[in-house]
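From the pipeline queue, job 12 of 40. The input is one protein chain; the requested action is below.

Action: predict structure.
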Amino acid sequence: MSLAAVVRATVVPKVPRARKAVLTLTPSAIVRLRSLTEGPEPKVVRVGIRTKGCSGQQYDLQYTSKKERFDEEVKQDGVTVLVDNKALLSVLGSEMDYVEDKLSAQFVFNNPNVKESCGCGMSFMT
């Protein structure tokens, strides 16, 4: 007994894949970034990563007035944040939050790519 198979070509329309956000901002981060970047001269915050700390990498936030050639621009609710091209793979999918408590006020990154972090929480490894 032999089996026969028929192959039919079907055209499936290409649906663009949803692109994962490089960085999302929480409402408290948006409010804080807006207050930091207001002023007579336009400036934005650039998020980068530098080699430092117990676990190897640390977030680096800098003011800048212009976008570099390969920086990724994140716009959310009227606030613009630049992500340094060298930090893209480490930051991809992260959430940037701003947290205030009795002793400190700081930006906190909830990063799904982190494999290990130090005890103080200042450095990480991806």
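Job complete. The two ends are 57 Å apart (CA to CA).
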